[in-house]
Amino acid sequence: MKVGNYFIDDVHLIDVKNNFSIIEIASMFLEQGLDSFIVVENKKPIYIITQTDLIYLFFKNYQNKTLKEIIEKFPKKILTINKNDDVYKAYKIMRGAGVEHLIVVNENGEVIGELHNKDIVMKFVEYALKDEMTGLNNKRFLETIIKRYNKTDAKIGAIFIDIDDFKYFNDTFGHEIGDKVIKSVAKKIKESIREIDFAFRYGGDEFLVLIFNQEKEIVLKIANRIFDKISSIDDEIFGKIGISVGVAMYPDDNKDLEEVIKLADENLYLAKEKGKGKIESSS
User: Fold this and answer.
1) Residue 239 belongs to a domain with what CATH number?
2) Among 88, 109, 228, 254, which lies 20 to 30 A Cα-Cα from 155?
């Protein structure tokens, strides 16, 4: 997780050579609705002015002072992070210094953006609950969903999906192409469901979809839609992808959601035993 993937490049810079007065800078804040200005010299950060700074300067009657005078009177330590550094390093710096953002610089030390603590925290949460390769939810998040909805009145359809003969793709084309197969399947799954439903990468080539508040007939239609979309893939390198699918319903098939997911998995393997490339559901 590199800083370069997460910083905000919409930053506002003031070149120190302009040497604006504080009242002029305050006008810029009001006109542009800003939170801060980064002061640069030869594109490198030397100071930062925030809304809080302006309030203090006006309170102390420094509004007619120039930027250079303020920098000299109230020196600051400028915290920066290189765009190629790890996000965890940035988080540790912010936490240690008690600040909410860092100035992001390139290899030459020139300002290219800002990194905000709230954005990092959200990325950490997302990283903890998402599968990095596919962007689908992971099993840790599934555990949360099970705890949230188990033994409730919710109606949930569980669709278990497994790529048929996945080993063939890895053995024939290599693991990089195998990863492409997994990503392709994940993409089609996401295209097939609503925002209120959940898709998980359950294991290496296994996926789970939870469909909320739909009757079994609709859940089966969604399972068929997923099946058809994945079956439509015809890649120029690896060709077609076959899948087997198992479906079960909560609470119709079992009043324990975890057991329903296991039942969907069992139905999936029943589909494989019947020749693969099929959808099986509980009667």
Assistant:
1) 3.30.70.270
2) 228
Q: Are residues 158 and 190 in the same domain?
A: yes
Contact 200, 208 (CB under 8 A): yes
List active site positions.
Answer: 205
Residues 39, 33: contact at Cβ < 8 Å?
Answer: no
Structural element, H or E, at residue 176: helix 175-192
Tokens of 34: 């800003």
136 and 77 both lie in a single domain? no
Residue 163's pLDDT is: 98
Q: Which domain holds residue 172?
A: 131-281
Dist. CA 191–CA 233, nearest whole Å: 13
Residues 74 and 203 in one domain: no
CA angle centred on 242, ends 236 and 244, rounded to 5° = 160
Range of lowest pLDDT (14-23, 87-96, 180-189): 87-96
Domain termination site, one of 123, 153, 170: 123
CA distance 249 to 257: 9
CA angle 98, 100, 105 (to 5 degrees): 110
Q: Give the end of a domain, one of 123, 155, 187.
A: 123
For residues 70 and 159, membership in a common domain is answered with no
CA-to-CA distance for 181 and 188, rounded, in angstroms? Answer: 11
Contact between residue 62 and residue 70 where contact means Cβ atoms under 8 Å apart = yes
Q: Picking from 3-12, 152-161, 263-272, which range would have the lowest pLDDT averaged per residue? A: 3-12
Classify the phi-psi angles of 30: left when phi > 0, otherwise alpha if psi is within -120 to 50, otherwise beta.
alpha
User: Are the C-beta atoms of residues 206 and 162 closer than 8 Å to each other?
Assistant: yes
State pLDDT tens for residues 32-82: 877 788 999 999 999 998 888 999 999 999 989 999 999 999 998 889 999
What the block records as the tokens of 232 is 């439509």
Structurally, the chain folds into a number of domains equal to 2
Tell me, yes or no, whether 152 and 246 share the same domain: yes
